[in-house]
Amino acid sequence: MSVRIQYFAGLREALGMGGEEVELPAGVATVGALRDWLAGQGRDALATAKNLRCAVNQQMAGFGVAVKSGDEVAFFPPVTGG
Amino acid sequence: MRVSVQEADFDVGAETEALAAGRPEVGAVASFVGYVRADKLAGESAADQAVSAMTLEHYPGMTEKSLEAIVAEAESRWSLLGVRVIHRFGRLVPGDRIVFVGVAGSHRGEAFAACEFIMDYLKTRAPFWKKEDTPEGGRWVDAREADDAAAEKWGQA
């Protein structure tokens, strides 16, 4: 099983894609580690984004939250609805 | 239905009345409507240099869940008799309605408070993003620290 990654708003535009499926590399166990690994794969905007936020399985999450195969992980800028 | 995320406009009068219709225990309905504002662009002097439209993006699935969670949190804090939240997405122009929050209660106190609480939490927790059309092209709206402060005044959920 892989991890479904989604990108939104300015981050989606900067990366040029709305999401991707990745096989979780060994040793990547948290959202923060996943972000760092993706940034190292050429997703530079994940490293340079200010105030990057994330959600795991459609719940707001901190970067220390665990991630495992089958999860849906989203990265996005601070929200601006309402 | 308590939460709707939709492209279509909504009828404020009908939504507000529906919160009290046929429910004699309701003594107060408080509502909030948010509109697209024609903001002047920072640093621009010409009066016509304003936001001409905006596009609201959201995270389908998570949006509905987060709004339901915010409503549930409000219901755990106040004794409420009904809640309705509608948030639009897609392309909107100044004067268009964006969001409706209506709260029914026995008395005005809980209705006013819960309505403000839901808006404050929605602003910082529901996954929507605004992109403004400007004469120089599209521009993503920055989150405001004032919105974080407004949500924090209610304490931790």
TrEMBL record, chain A:
The keyword Nucleotide-binding applies. It comes from the Bacteria. GO terms for molecular function: nucleotide binding. The keyword RNA-binding does not apply. Pfam families: ThiS. Keywords: Nucleotide-binding. Gene3D superfamilies: 3.10.20.30. GO terms for biological process: Mo-molybdopterin cofactor biosynthetic process. GO terms for cellular component: molybdopterin adenylyltransferase complex. Belongs to the MoaD family. This is Molybdopterin synthase sulfur carrier subunit. It comes from Zoogloea ramigera.
Automatic annotation (TrEMBL), chain B:
Keywords: Molybdenum cofactor biosynthesis, Transferase. Pfam families: MoaE. InterPro entries: MoaE_sf, Mopterin_biosynth_MoaE. Transmembrane segments: none annotated. It catalyses: 2 [molybdopterin-synthase sulfur-carrier protein]-C-terminal-Gly-aminoethanethioate + cyclic pyranopterin phosphate + H2O = molybdopterin + 2 [molybdopterin-synthase sulfur-carrier protein]-C-terminal Gly-Gly + 2 H(+). Pathway: Cofactor biosynthesis; molybdopterin biosynthesis. It comes from the Bacteria. Its EC number is 2.8.1.12. One of its GO terms (biological process) is Mo-molybdopterin cofactor biosynthetic process. One of its GO terms (molecular function) is molybdopterin synthase activity. Belongs to the MoaE family. Heterotetramer of 2 MoaD subunits and 2 MoaE subunits. Also stable as homodimer. The enzyme changes between these two forms during catalysis. This is Molybdopterin synthase catalytic subunit.
